Amino acid sequence: MIHDLTKGRPANVILLFAFPIILGNIFQQIYSVVDSIIVGRYVSYQALAGVGITNGLTFFVFGFVLGITSGIGIMTAQFFGAKNYDTMRRSLGTGFIICIALSLILTALAIASIDISLEFIGATEEIYEYSHDYLLITYIGLLSQIAYNMVACILRALGDSKTPLYFLIFSSVVNIGLDFLFVKSFGWGVQGAAWATVVAQLISAIFCFVYVFSKYKDLRLKKEDFRTSWSFIWEHLRVGIPMALQFSITAFGVIVLYSALNKFPTTYIAGFTTASKIQSLGMLVPISLGVAIANYVGQNYGAGNLVRMRVGVTSALLMSIVVCFVVSITVAVFANPLTSLFLDPDIVGDTSEIYAASTQYLYVSALFFPFLFLLFIYRNALQGVGITFMPLMAGVAELVIRVVASLILPNYFGYQGVILVDVLAWVGACLLLYVSYRVQMPRSERKYKAKYFTRK
Questions:
Q1: Any idea what the Cα angle at residue 288 is, between residues 282 and 293, rounded to 5°?
Q2: CA–CA gap between residue 294 and residue 383 (Å, rounded)
Q3: Are 357 and 334 in contact (CB under 8 A)?
Q4: Domain boundaries defined on the chain
């Protein structure tokens, strides 16, 4: 169902809108985590490490996709909030044109760069083949990822966060079933885990398209909706490209981090991979609140509800702080039991180093979660009104911090230095975004009032 986010109590509206996104991200992370659990328990810890070091590389590509589709969604949210439905449909048509071109270009570039990327991060011979196979199959399925993200971002822009949830649940169940079938039953190893994800995403994307355009008459596009112009395309890319670059720049910092991590034994890489998967579950709520606040801000900014917009951001910040407290304690207390889900001693053998590497990372990161949680709110609030430069610069700051820290800290502090790389990046980016929010949001409001002075 399409919802108008410009009406109702802000905190309730944001929470109700975010809740399906949270559930959807939980299921999305579940099948990502299940991939790693099945690989770690039924293949080997070397395979787990091989899949783990691809995190930054896949995020580099998928983050770019997410940024472009999120930018399109923000434009759609603003047109919807302004009740300009004809332009909204034209925006959707333009978005589809952009995504088709993006899928062709990115798939070709990603596949061509696999060997260079793995050499850059210093993948060892012990895990190289696992990483290569996983990346190749994942990139082949890039089109399904783009298709799903496009439809999901459009629906969320219109206030519908439930439909993407239903299809994510469906996709997660299919993915988990295929994981067991391909990896455990067929013995396809990491290739089976990758194919399970690709097939599940493709099925979900197809069903999502069919459902959305059969149910929502207002979203049914006509031939004229695809008649666009370079200026209108640029209007979308102007928002989407900085968001895409911000994600990809952050991902490049993760790639640099893994290049430093690859200098340590494979057991440390496996432990770091395990901890990062657990951490990703803890990040689900702030990520979801960030998505919710971007669409909430986009609709209310388009409608001229500037005071309501600020109240909503404040509510999201308070919710994020409360959740952060709960997540930090949970991660710290259950670090060992959570790590054990990924390891089978009968297959892996001695797991003591893997446990130590995983729990160390979880203990330290839990202390710095407040910076990470607030980062998502400030970043998405700025992007919701079309301010993309400073979120991009925050991504650049993360990259610089990760590069410099990766070159220095591991040499002095060993594996603990690798752990500190991540948390220092969170602190730097969060502080920059906080200052930007305090300075640029009032400017954006004054600019809006000057342009639409007569709007109530």
A1: 140
A2: 6
A3: no
A4: 10-451
Q: Is 387 left (phi over 0), alpha (psi -120 to 50) or beta?
A: beta
What are 123-150's pLDDT values in tens digits? 888 889 999 999 999 999 888 888 888 8
> Rounded distance, CA 65 to CA 71, Å?
10
3-class DSSP string for 168-234: HHHHHHHHHHHHHHHHHHCCCHHHHHHHHHHHHHHHHHHHHHHHHHHHCHHHCCCHHHHCCCHHHHH
The reply to whether the predicted model has a pTM over 0.85 is no
Rg (CA), the chain: 21
- CA atoms of 400 and 428, how far apart (whole Å): 10
Alpha carbon distance 336, 328 (integer Å): 14
| Closest alpha carbon to 397 in 445, 429, 438 | 429
- CA-CA distance, 345 to 120, in Å (whole number)? 32
User: And the tokens for 80?
Assistant: 């919807």
Q: How far apart are the first and last CA of the chain?
A: 27
Handedness of CA 375, 376, 378, 383 (dihedral sign): positive
Q: Give me 323's structure tokens.
A: 């959740």
Q: Please tell me the distance from the alpha carbon of residue 272 to that of residue 276, in angstroms, as a whole number.
A: 6
Kindly tell me the burial class for residue 183, based on how many C-beta atoms sit within 10 Å of its own C-beta (0-12, 13-18, 19 or more). Answer: buried
**Of 3, 83, 33, 48, which Cα lies nearest the Cα of 278?**
33
Residues 6+ apart with CB under 8 A from 145: 62, 65, 201, 205
25 token code pair:
């991200």
CA distance 227 to 97: 10
> What pLDDT, in 10s, does the model give residues 381-405?
988 887 878 888 888 888 899 889 9
Instruction: Check: CB of residue 411 under 8 Å from CB of residue 264.
Output: no
Q: Which of 43, 198, 55 lies closest to 117, judged by CA?
A: 55
- Which residue's entry shows tokens 């069919």? 210
